[in-house]
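FORM 7B: Structural annotation worksheet

SECTION A. Query
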Amino acid sequence: MAAADQEFHVSAVPPRSYQNKSYLHGFLGTVGDLQKAGVLQDVVLEVEGRRFPCHRLVLSAASPYFRAMFTSDMAESRQKTVVLQDLDAGVFGEILSYIYSGTLHVSLDKVQPLYQAADLLQLDYVRDICSSYMAMNVEHSTCVDLYNFADVFSVGIVLRRCVEWIDINFTEFSFSEEFCSLSVNQLTEIISHGELDVKEETTVWEAVVRWVQHSREDRLHHLPSILPYIRFNLLTSDDTAAILDHPLVKEDPGSSDVVRSVVQKNKTKLNRRHGMTTEMVLLYNFSSKELIFINPHKGKCISRTYKPEEIPCVHGMTVTSDYDIYILETRNKLQLSLYKYNHEENVWEQTGVYSNGTHNEMYETHFHAVGGVLYYLALNPEEERPLLQIIKYSPHTNQWQECSQLQLRETLCSNVTVSCGSHLYFLRSQEMHRYDPSQDRWSERTPPIDISDVGSAVAMGTEIFCIDWEFTQTKVYDTESDSWQKLQGWSNPGGLDVGYRPSLFVLDKQLHLLIDVPDTNRQRSSTDHIYVYDRSADTWIDVKATLPNIKRYDADGSCAPVARMYLPYFRET
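SECTION B. Predicted structure
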């Protein structure tokens, strides 16, 4: 073929973008050098009489506040010198240093004015850094000051951390000068919390007395408005009588009337405070109709036995974020019934019935609570491409509603469901999906491929921990990054009895495992153990708790539910 007739085919080369990181870093460094050298500055900012020569372009690029000032018809856009109000000169110098260098220096004595300046100048990064710094430094000496600041400027992350610290340390904190410096509104807000870590309600009353007596003349008239926040239903009759006889109450007739009104009309039927209850793992014996509540760290193991007519046939058990315990029962293959545990009376009370379902005994079912709403999921593993059905029940409205179904790719018997945050997760070896209740929608996520037979999974914070049936693999899933990490800490004690599923659970903010392992003393073929996971050492540690033969009990679903229980109810019943 002649050269003129030849055709040359040039493959299309896609365009690419290149980023010079050294240029970006060097550019900011050069701008900082220009500022230090006083070169090309075209505006002077004056704060408290102190002058700061600057560059309009740099200020506008860094702050929407300055961008609006210098690019609009405002008078400042034409002025050589601009006076800034409501700013501290030293703090503004720190802000300016950040704008020209990208480095921010924060300390406890500067963080609050830095936050205010960043808020005014619309520097989101500086404001967020200051918020995080304050939240990390909440302690006894700083809590009230940071609480007051966060309350005035609505700094949510700091306010929540302060409240959390006060709840945990309330008993000790209530004896401090900082506590006595609280305003009446702050006091009532704090003592209204159910999360207070107090063993007795009298602790709250005694704290109120100290607060009033700190400035008796100025505060005594506030007592009638404070008393309704005392949970009188948690006090004995002797405690209430002592309060009525207290000099502060007797001195103010209005206070006596409030106490009598609250007690007689029972208007304060409020839940137990956090510190009055104990977290317990719930296990169930199908044959003996027996519930067992365990907290190995506190040496608690309490069983409750019921007559057949007193407890339904358990097909699912879950605990809400408010620690309400629900049991799911299925009847006649078509009807679902819900029962709620009455802690005070130790009875199960029916709360809802669903009769439009197509439940089949072949279905594998799951039962979870998300945001106070209960979700029932059913899967028929015999189908070639099984369908995960889901319905929800709202205890507040006593209504059932069908939700979006999930079409799965293949039939696998080993699967679990987990509630984490505001979502539900369905996972097995090759497939993982997330259900968003707010959107009523499923989305696909990254599955735990290395775990062939998913045995148990539980959520702790924003993470989901997952193990296989034989407990040879342990992985953790980060719900925010959609990624898995393998944990290496388990040392197999020489083979496991896999006749029943090992169960993960979270107790006192620690990951635990209930499992049957060989008895080294050979007195029995195997014994039940509870292990706690040490994240820093990446290893499982035997709690060495004395347990009953809990092999007779079932940890409902893929994890053992945990609830907060008021132990005196057990002694009284």
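SECTION C. Observations
The chain has a mean pLDDT of 83. The chain is about 30% helix and 30% strand.

SECTION D. Sign-off
Analyst initials: ____
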